[in-house]
Structures are given as structure tokens and as C-alpha cells.
């Protein structure tokens, strides 16, 4: 059980137990939301990521949030879109599922996701939103935990795509 909603905002401002970072496989920072999270968390976040030795696409690793309002950061590298026939959907679903499971294992009650892979990684927005909402819905239905899950869209177009995908699940 639990809940899901789409909001528009800046995930570095989220006052939640965990935010998810659209990381790359090095976990050593990058552009987009990853860069914003590292800037807001301060240099301790980079120092905490170094000994993690990277992370495979679709997997998830945890650090503290340091100077962020969020207590924890869950780092998950999404797939780079390569046309759709390179397991992109399966890998993106793994990101959401593994991040949710890690949050629950850590005792989180609230977790915020950015729109994984739809920035620099080029995953088509509507397709990504469909995978994300389906995976979150399935995970919540199977879970005994009361987890409040939010998708924090940076812009209105992204928010609309996830709202539509959620509504279309039926
Ligand atoms: P990826 O490399 O996984 O595609 P990006 O960071 O390039 O990740 O983009 C993922 C999404 O995160 C995009 O929709 C982008 O607009 C959004 N984004 C960028 N900064 C923030 C932020 N501070 N809060 C929430 N979303 C953000």
C-alpha cells in the first residue's frame, strides 16, 4: 500500500526521507538533476559516493543527504535511450523498483523521484512515464509498507506526462 502523486518543483528542496538521484554509473556527479543534487548536498556527498565504486544501470545505492533537506539520497543510473531495443524499459523499471525497495528497507515513509532518463539520457517522455507509473503502481500494490511516493517534475510538460500515464493505468 501507499500513495503516488505528481508534483512540479525542484527535488533538491524536497523535505522527504529520501530523494532519488538520476545518477550516472560512476556516481561521481554530472549535469542535470545529478549536478543540482550534488551542489545542494555539499562536498560530503561526493566524498560518500567515491567508496561506492559506481553503480550498474538499473541498480541503486544509498548515501546520506548531508546538506539537503532530504535525509537520504538513492542514486540510480537510468538507461541511455538507444532506440528502445537495448532493454531500456526493463532497465528503467529496475531503477524505480530497486529504488523503492531500498527506500523501504531503509525505513523511509516518503520518497521523491525525478523523471529518470528523460533529460540528457534521451528516453522519450511518454514512454518513460508509462514505465515509471506502471512500475510504481505494481510495487505499491505488492508492498505492505505505507510509502508515499512522488514524482517531482521540473517542468509542466513532464508533470503532465506522468499525470496522464498514471491516469491511463486504470
Ligand atoms: P538523465 O541523465 O537521467 O536523463 P537529467 O538530469 O538530464 O537525467 O534529467 C532528468 C530530469 O530531471 C529532466 O526532466 C530534468 O528536467 C529534471 N531535473 C533537472 N533538475 C532538476 C531538479 N532540480 N529537480 C527535479 N528535476 C530536475
TrEMBL record:
Matches recorded under PANTHER family: GANGLIOSIDE INDUCED DIFFERENTIATION ASSOCIATED PROTEIN 2-RELATED (PTHR11106), MACRO DOMAIN-CONTAINING PROTEIN (PTHR11106:SF27)
Protein name stated in the entry: Macro domain-containing protein
SUPFAM superfamilies reported for this sequence: Macro domain-like
Top-level taxonomy: Bacteria, Bacillati, Bacillota, Bacilli, Lactobacillales
Molecular-function annotations in GO: O-acetyl-ADP-ribose deacetylase activity
InterPro entries (UniProt xref): Macro_dom, Macro_dom-like
PROSITE patterns, per database record: MACRO
Annotated ranges, domain Macro: 1-170
